[in-house]
Design brief:
It is built from 9 helices and 15 strands. It has 422 residues and is α/β, with parallel strands linked by helices. It has a 7-stranded mixed β-sheet with strand order 1-5-6-7-8-10-9, covered by helices on one side. Strands 4-3-2-11-12 form a 5-stranded mixed β-sheet. The longest helix has 30 residues.
């Protein structure tokens, strides 16, 4: 049986002996607890296992029901290597206290304190501010981190508590301001460092939710999923960001039998996806639009199943380095594989297979060319991509032919993929 790792805090002040460091995970579950997101969270738990304890700075779950709390607790207990504490985020409503206890509490570690304050409703509770005063006034507390979910006013984002609320927090820690070494928050699905009221502010939301743009200076493509380590060295409280690789959680791939079964499951789900899409096309052509709509929805469901299973065993490159890794397989297909198989089909009197390989080969060549352009993401200029739905040929650029150069399909049938404005 897995050891219970998620801690239910029963007393407002917890003294933890032998604890010298803490790993911080931000916003693992607010966008859902699907496998695709939870792989990041599992990797974050593995990385934070290097520390003595872990703190999740809010948004464990998409909504505060028992179902979601049970799901995240089961996942955490199965993966975590140390005790995991939480603070309440704006998504962590409902049954939060039933599962995790106190909303405002302090952890007194060997060399520093962490004071957890609830501001999930964009206001600091009086009991939390009173607790902060009590902890900072202790002679034994010389260094402290004040942790909460929603940021205080800063130089990067407007999604924060009001100046009035920050003033209440400042008044609470004011007499002992020198002891406050960090302000720590989540909520923003990215990361940034700032200084407010002369105190370093660390914002971290990279524990599972999809990374988002913060500003022109802090773009989603420049930030990886990550956690933060806090530790004491030579009497000074320090922090260190640790990026989570795209290949962060590896436990499942160690099981050869399960790994093979997952790969077969992915193939089955993708085949169902294809079959449903093809039937949807047939239904649409025959005027059964509602049936077509049903099968497109089923096809989408099967794709997401395949994606979730594939994410368990996937080991991709770092995001900004990943586009060019797809080029060699495209080149191999049009230069060698499809050419050889097309010739085989022709020699054995199968013109349909020969035609399919010829069309695919032409498309793969265009795939490779576009991927080479896109390997430098910032310089890629194509905003509209056209796909012939008859043969799959891909076209980009200003001059799009009236008919597909491979199969002759008409332009009005091309599927258009256009850049969406933010």
């Amino acid at each position: 049986m897995n050891k219970k790792r998620m801690i239910q805090v029963t007393e407002p002040i917890q003294r933890l002996t032998g604890v010298h460091s803490i790993g911080i995970i931000g916003d693992p579950g607010c966008e859902g607890l699907g496998t695709y997101n939870m792989k990041v969270y599992a990797g974050a738990l593995e990385e934070s296992g290097r520390d003595d304890i872990t703190l999740i700075v809010g948004d464990l779950v998409p909504a505060g029901t028992s179902h979601y709390y049970e799901t995240i607790r089961e996942m955490t207990d199965a993966v975590a290597a140390n005790d995991v504490y939480t603070l309440r985020g704006n998504h962590d409503t409902g049954a939060y206290t039933d599962y995790f206890g106190q909303k405002n509490y302090a952890l007194l570690l060997e060399h520093f304190a962490v004071v957890v304050l609830d501001n999930a409703m964009r206001t600091f509770e009086e009991e939390g501010l009173a607790l902060l005063k009590d902890v900072l006034s202790m002679d034994g507390v010389t260094q402290a981190i004040i942790a909460f979910h929603i940021p205080v006013p800063n130089h990067f984002i407007l999604n924060c508590v009001s100046e009035e609320e920050f003033a209440r927090l400042q008044k609470a820690y004011g007499p002992w301001k020198k002891k406050v070494k960090y302000l720590l928050c989540g909520h923003v699905h990215s990361r940034f460092e700032d200084v407010v009221d002369g105190i370093p502010l660390i914002c971290t939301g990279g524990g599972g939710a999809m990374i988002e743009d913060v500003s022109k200076e802090i773009r989603a493509c420049d930030v990886e999923h990550h956690i933060v380590h806090f530790y004491e060295k030579d009497g000074v409280l320090k922090h260190l960001f640790s990026n989570l690789s795209q290949d962060s959680y590896r436990r499942k791939r160690k099981d050869a039998i399960l790994n093979r079964q997952i790969q077969e499951t992915v193939q089955g789900e993708l085949m169902a996806h294809l079959k449903y899409l093809m039937y949807a096309d047939r239904a649409q052509r025959r005027g059964f639009t509602r049936i077509s709509n049903l099968f497109r929805a089923l096809a989408a469901s099967e794709y997401y199943h395949a994606r979730n299973f594939y994410s368990v065993t996937e080991h991709p490159q770092a995001f900004l380095e990943s586009v060019e890794t797809y080029v060699p397989s495209e080149e191999f297909e049009y230069e060698h594989l499809y050419k050889m198989l097309g010739a085989y089909a022709k020699a054995h009197g199968n013109p349909l297979a020969e035609q399919a390989y010829a069309a695919a080969r032409a498309a793969e060549k265009e795939h490779a060319a576009l991927l080479k352009q896109a390997s430098n993401m910032d310089s890629f200029k194509e905003t509209s991509i056209y796909v012939c739905p008859i043969c799959g040929y891909v076209m980009a650029g200003g001059q799009i032919p009236e008919r597909c150069p491979v199969c002759g399909g008409p332009k009005h049938q091309y599927e258009v993929f256009e850049e969406k404005s933010k």
